[in-house]
Write a structure and sequence with these properties.
Strand content of chain A: 15-25%
Order of helices and strands of chain A: HEEEHEHEEEHHHEHEHEEEE
Largest interface: A-B, 74 and 73 residues
Largest sheet of chain A: 7 strands, mixed
CATH class of the largest domain in chain A: Alpha Beta
Oligomer: homodimer
CATH superfamily of the largest domain in chain A: PurM-like, N-terminal domain
Number of helices of chain A: 8
Shape of chain A: globular
GO biological process, one term (chains A, B): thiamine diphosphate biosynthetic process
Number of strands of chain A: 13
EC number (chains A, B): 2.7.4.16
Distance between the termini of chain A: 21 Å
CATH architecture of the largest domain in chain A: 2-Layer Sandwich
Function (chains A, B): Catalyzes the ATP-dependent phosphorylation of thiamine-monophosphate (TMP) to form thiamine-pyrophosphate (TPP), the active form of vitamin B1.
Enzyme class (chains A, B): transferase
Radius of gyration of chain A: 21 Å
Structural class of chain A: alpha+beta
Pfam families (chains A, B): AIRS, AIRS_C
């Protein structure tokens, strides 16, 4: 099924089409971490997880080759890591401790098995680094033209109420944990320098870029969001929280509208490149509000204050005009 | 973005590219059923569900245009219904009552909004008909070339142990609830008669087929599996159970290997077309084993007995050679 000239390094390797679904799964499962909450793992029609406090948190997100990643830039390990990281971050943003993932993967039949195993390794390493005890409890394998990862993640609120977007009150402190703008710089570098002379995403060019700007490119391809700080913020009394996925200004606007408040950033706290801090997406930091005069948990940094103006984002008291990412409007469809 | 000549009936309709993600979600959510277990629904980083007995069942499945469905044959409502039905069936096969779904949808930017709303309506009607009280608690929208639905489903074991594939014992009764072979006949009819003169899937030909063989085509496109009988079988003491998705022989083989037993079907119980009953997939009935001399719950029919031969499927005591479906080997990739 594979074209030896086009994929020389894979020519002697098994592809998905060479193996049965059962054989692929048998190679994947031993690489995946087991969840501490797992009562019944993969292999039956469904898994069974414990939910100690009688509730569970659930979120889902899909990553698709083209709109969401290019295989010329991301390694399979990057893909698994980022799929874990972004979903764990949504769980953490509720103030919950991530407990488990289920993972559906669709891939072309010509995909080398090493790609799927690399994704599995990235899922494992991402879970182990970002949320120890969180494991993969089930999944699904399908065929598709574009490599697709669909993740559902679960979390444990450990008896606490969830931290919603809607709880911020005027006078609260606005704080952030994690990186701000680095993933956006990394993506900008990849679009500008990670391409060949025709502008097509290039593995060779991306590798050169990684040699020179490894940390920034990694912030985009394999982010390290502060997952553990979600439950910490909840325990410290956070009044509202969300995951900063589409850029600080857009996500602050969501929190502001949900809470019926304004979010006023201090420009001095946004660093030298204010537009990048406000507009750069995919850092997956945590934006949270805390009661007035709170001492912030370690890892959070004050960015401003909650005001009474309903539903708007300000910088130094002046309204900020938003820009940002929309999955349908922003899509260029290039597979890469 | 749309080609008016190619899609005349959609030319004046909003597409996903015309609307923001928020606007699309605002149109979808009011159509979706709320889950009885929902503590916090869509709109935050994650949902929160109750898990009354301190556990929850979870399964996932992806449906992709081409390998899993053709838009020339399935209506958007069919897609939503089938996505619900197949996932609810995996929950039921554990002996659990389905409680909730999360739904990730990826679609081309040119997709008319009516397609997405039709899927939402199918999800709602499928949940309401097959598992009242089960709702959609969250989701994700992405861009992709191929329409893709990724569903994760949850269930409540209501204090019972899960019914595994591995619990069958020699002497147990083998029983089945639901249809057997109809979905396979429906698919065969579609492949043979639901195409134009060039063999390309055709909506017009499929509509003619639905006029004449509506029930068989519907068994394939919008199945009605016996979801409620999963918990009933569990309460009646089922020793093993699974969802028959890939055909009776293949799925009986899975149960046989997991339990270390043989499954011996009585040919008289398999009906006139034994090969179709054994080989036709996608009916999503429930194959279960019950202790010897059990009186079967209403809706289950005796198909044979569990024997001591490890890991094999028999008919009237003779080994049965399996055939069936593999997602990578069986794929033809035609989009339709």
């Amino acid at each position: 099924m594979t074209n030896a000239a086009a994929v020389p390094s894979w020519a002697t390797e098994d592809t998905l089409a060479d193996l049965s679904e059962g054989e692929v799964l048998a190679r994947i499962f031993p690489r995946l971490p087991q969840a501490d909450t797992e009562l019944l793992g993969p292999g039956d029609d469904a898994a069974v997880l414990s939910a100690a406090d009688g509730r569970f948190v659930v979120t889902c997100d899909m990553m698709i080759q083209g709109p969401d990643f290019r295989l010329a830039w991301s390694t399979p390990h990057d893909l698994g890591w980022k799929a874990a990281a972004t979903n764990l971050s949504d769980v953490a943003a509720m103030g919950a401790r991530p407990t488990a993932l289920v993972v559906a993967i669709a891939a072309p039949p010509s995909t080398p098995i090493s790609v799927i195993l690399g994704i599995a390794d990235g899922l494992r390493d991402g879970c182990e680094a970002l949320a120890p005890g969180c494991g993969v409890v089930g999944g699904d394998l399908s065929a598709a033209d574009a490599l697709t990862l669909s993740i559902t993640a679960f979390g444990d609120l450990e008896g606490r109420p969830p931290v919603l977007r809607s709880g911020a009150r005027p006078g609260d402190v606005v704080a952030h944990a994690g990186r701000l703008g680095d993933a956006g710089i990394g993506l900008g570098l990849l679009f500008r320098f990670g391409v060949d002379e025709q502008g097509v995403p290039s593995r060779e060019q991306a590798d050169l870029l990684k040699d020179r700007h490894g940390a920034l490119v990694a912030a985009q391809l394999a982010p390290v969001p502060p997952i553990n700080l979600g439950p910490v913020a909840a325990a410290a009394g956070a009044t509202a929280m969300l995951d900063v996925s589409d850029g600080l200004a857009i996500d602050a606007g969501r929190l502001a509208r949900a809470s019926g408040v304004g979010i006023d950033f201090d420009s001095t706290a946004l660093g030298d490149n204010r537009e990048l801090a406000l507009g750069g997406g995919e850092d997956h930091g945590l934006l949270a509000t805390f009661p007035p005069h709170s001492s912030l948990p370690e890892g959070f940094r004050r960015l401003g204050a909650v005001t009474a103006e309903a539903g708007i984002v300000l910088v130094d008291g002046e309204p900020h005009t938003q820009g940002g990412w929309d999955p349908y409007r922003g899509w260029d469809g290039q597979a890469g």
